[in-house]
């Protein structure tokens, strides 16, 4: 796997969806440290869909276990959109390591599945990998 160590995130924006304030804060901090210009937040999938359609972020990092709209339903709705945002990269960042969760995420076309707590270098590596893949497509 080729990793671009100096990938420029300064023109990118991200959306962090998690019902835990501390997790949102930490992921937002990581993205800002990577160089993301803008990072938007949402507390659940319903709010995440609204922000996604308004702000059109370049990548979404989303928890699975949220109410009223969980990460699976959020991803399902994103992939059904009739706009270019249907292809936005989505990374699940969750505490669910169960194989059935991973299989369901793959069926819904998740771009990456990471377990909490995630080390910033690991998160960045996955973002770079996803963005490089998109650039080659």
Can I get a quick summary?
The protein has 137 residues and is α/β, with parallel strands linked by helices. The chain is built from five helices and five strands, in the order βαβαβαβαβα. A five-stranded parallel β-sheet has the order 2-1-3-4-5, with helices on both faces.
Q: Mind explaining what this structure looks like?
A:
There is one protein chain. With 137 residues, this protein is α/β, with parallel strands linked by helices. It has a single domain, classed as Response regulator (Rossmann fold), CATH 3.40.50. Helix content is 45%, strand content 17%. The protein contains five helices and five strands; from the N terminus they run βαβαβαβαβα. The chain has helices at 21-34, 45-55, 71-80, 99-107, 120-136; strands at 13-17, 38-42, 59-62, 90-94, 112-115. It has a five-stranded parallel sheet with strand order 2-1-3-4-5, with helices on both faces. Strand 1, helix 1 and strand 2 (38-42) form a beta-alpha-beta unit. Helix 2 (45-55) packs parallel to helix 3.
Shape: globular
CATH topology: Rossmann fold
Provide the spatial order of strands within the biggest beta sheet.
2-1-3-4-5
- The H-and-E topology, N to C, reads as EHEHEHEHEH
> Low-confidence stretches at least 5 residues in length (pLDDT < 50)?
none
Largest sheet: 5 strands, parallel
How much helical structure, as a percent, in the residues? 40-55%
> Counting H and I runs of at least 4 residues, what is the number of helices?
5
* Overall structural domain count: 1
